[in-house]
Amino acid sequence: MFKHDKLPLMEKPYSASCERNAKAICDVLKKIIGDNYTSLLELGSGTGQHAVYMAPQFPQITWICSDVKSNHEGINLWLKEVNLSNIKGPIEFEIGKDVFPSGVFDMVYTANTFHIMDWEKDKLFMQLCGNNLKKDALVIIYGPFNYNGTYTSQSNADFDIWLKERNSLSAIRSYEDVSKNMISSGFTLLQDFDMPANNRTLVFKKR
Ligand SMILES: C[S@@+](CC[C@H](N)C(=O)[O-])C[C@H]1O[C@@H](n2cnc3c(N)ncnc32)[C@H](O)[C@@H]1O
């Protein structure tokens, strides 16, 4: 027998914050997703927990997970367990490396990615949405944001220090910078939802 015959199986990854915020985000999605929306591309699915929690609550929507390749194995473990027919993927979509996935998406949803990716990638993501989405498509961005150059809480200020220690290019982004870039990419701000734990959900619609 070769040594690698007994490689340990990967454990299903688990995100406690995903578990905590999934319901609040889903409640916002219920307010904004109309009956005529049928496909959603998720950028940076992470573990896949948001897809697994939310997709069953929108049976009319095909939820397409995406992330960098290294996260696919973990996402697949979650998807395999629930075996939901309206979740597809994960597809490989890394901002800065991959082109925008082919297909027609009426929504792009992303949670907790803007403060992880560097600002150039955030801007590229917004441009890609502008170049590839059709009129009335929604872009939904969840996470912490600063307003008027100020943290909205001490915990966000502490989180920002922690982020920058891990990666000097990660940071909590400015709501005004994000809005400005989304507007110049062809979107209008539809709503800015206050979320638990000093987070926001920004909803933009393609003009
Ligand atoms: C903090 S996790 C958030 C995961 C999940 N959305 C959540 O809310 O729990 C950040 C995610 O962004 C993804 N990510 C980082 N850089 C990326 C890039 N350049 N393109 C696409 N996804 C990226 C990571 O792989 C990871 O899944």
Describe what you observe in this structure.
By secondary structure, the chain is of the alpha/beta class. The protein has a single domain, classed as Rossmann fold (3-Layer(aba) Sandwich). The chain is built from 6 helices and 9 strands. It has helices at residues 16-32, 49-54, 72-82, 119-132, 154-166, 175-184, and strands at residues 39-43, 62-67, 87-92, 107-111, 138-143, 145-146, 173-174, 187-195, 199-206. The longest helix has 17 residues, at 16-32. The radius of gyration is 17 Å and the shape is globular. The N and C termini lie far apart (62 Å). Residues 15, 18, 43-46, 50, 67-68, 71, 94-96, 111-113, 116-117, 121 line the site of S-adenosylmethionine.
CATH architecture: 3-Layer(aba) Sandwich
CATH superfamily label:
Vaccinia Virus protein VP39
| Percent helix range | 25-40%
Contiguous helical run count: 6
Secondary-structure element series: HEHEHEEHEEHEHEE
Number of strands: 9
